[in-house]
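Table S2 (text version). Query chain:
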Amino acid sequence: MADDRYTTERDSFGRLLADREVWRQAGTILAAGELTARWLEGRSEYQPGTFTPSIDDETKSIAGVLAELNRNGLFTKESQPGVLAEGHAQRSYVTGFCSAESASALLDLSTRTGLVTVAHAPGEASQASIPVTLRDGEVVTVLGSSEGPVGGDQLRDWSEEANETLALLLAESWYVEVFDPAWGRNGRLLTAVLEALETGG
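Corresponding structure-token output:
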């Protein structure tokens, strides 16, 4: 049963190697999005660049709609729900890779709603810093500069974690960061992003 190790063996982060193998074939945003949706739904235990076999507790409340975003052209990278509690505040946000058409649809969302989209063209760097998480009055997470152009180190990382075709595609893709400026609000951002992708992406 020597070959059986691929169905049970895990990497040093606990991720299932069998689930990693399907990422070797993911060469499009939609293919990467489908695999990410499966991970969000608990049907996979491997996600490139996420060094844990499953989603964290915070993501569980938004996992369903995140899966839908991934199936509609936004290969999500980071996200968080809105939170407003003593000493802790979060703005709801989602980031990810997409086509120029999807980026345009999400920019248009900013013109029609109070939501904000920061779109980075392929290779474009940003020095913006938009606070989206505060703890005890200190900024702990910012958008605007969270993802620079996919350069040499990132190309290598994506190639190792997924495959070279996807790595090169991400280097040529748009990267978007969409957030709700209202601290602690939930239920608005992700559904609006999904609608924008479905109708305009």
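Notes on Table S2: Strands lie at 75-80, 83-85, 88-90, 93-98, 116-120, 130-135, 138-143, 174-179. The chain has a mean pLDDT of 91.
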